[in-house]
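To whoever picks this up:

The nightly regression suite flagged NADPH:quinone reductase as changed. Nothing in the input moved, so I suspect the structure step. Input below, exactly as stored in the fixture:
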Amino acid sequence: MKAAVVFEKGSIPQYTDFPDPEIQENEILVSVKAASIKNLDRARAGGNHYSTEHQEHQPAVIGTDGAGYLENGDKVYFFSKKGTVAEKAAADKKMIIPIPEGLDFSLAAGLPNAVMGSAMALKFKAGIQKGNTVLINGATGITGRIAVQVARLYGAQKIIVTGRNEESLQSLRELGADEVISLKMDDHDFKQKIKEIHKETPIDIVLDYIWGHSVEMILSAFKGDGNFSHKTKLINVGGMSGDAIQLSSQILRGTDIQISGSGLGSWSKAEFALLFSEIIPEMFRAAVEGKIKMETQDVDIKNIETIWNAEIQSGKRLVIRI
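Regenerated output under the current build:
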């Protein structure tokens, strides 16, 4: 079969012939039509993701999920640990979701990862309730844009977003954001803005995609003064602005804030099962109904080497078509 294969750690995937996947008892063969490329896939291909930290690199097909046809003709989204950017893939039988009529392969392939990075955090880590106020830090990326829409679907009353790209930031209003805050503001003004919002409509959830200095400022803005404070849950999903922060112990002692993360390894087996049985199917239906929107940049698998390090248009998910 034809596939996109990484032969050496950190090298660019090559469009080449590769052996068909061996199908185990718990797997089923999928004829792949589309597979998205995420930061996760790039990190795993380069051997830089924590899930591959202790693995010896072997030539492998890239990709972790995709969309295509089963042998009976059913259209499905699927997950696979054996690679998905190929003509054929071995899909885990427990991680297959029917694709509803009206949803094309590109969107079906591109949407689930952003759902994992938003709905899982909001539903299971933050325990979002109708009427909550949600701050999404670093919302101009693909997953952040989906998070705005998912938060609205889950009943958030007010959604505040931060970001550096002014055009992308303002466009989030069309997706459901009520207030935008530029990360280009100086520290004092940024913290003051957060304080004002938190005083007016206490923030219940902070969904963070970038970590780093912006989180330090947000936590500083929440710092209590010895009086009773509002309960806020800060859920980290990404670390684009740095992997470490400085955190004053006074903030933890003087503020009712809970800090946790959402990602591979942080979910329970039951929660991960619900991702496939309930959450992604719900978001697929929302996409068909126009309640969830995502743009994709589709590229033929033959051009994988050219597109791998190319700049993708902001707000679009790269999808490889096979």
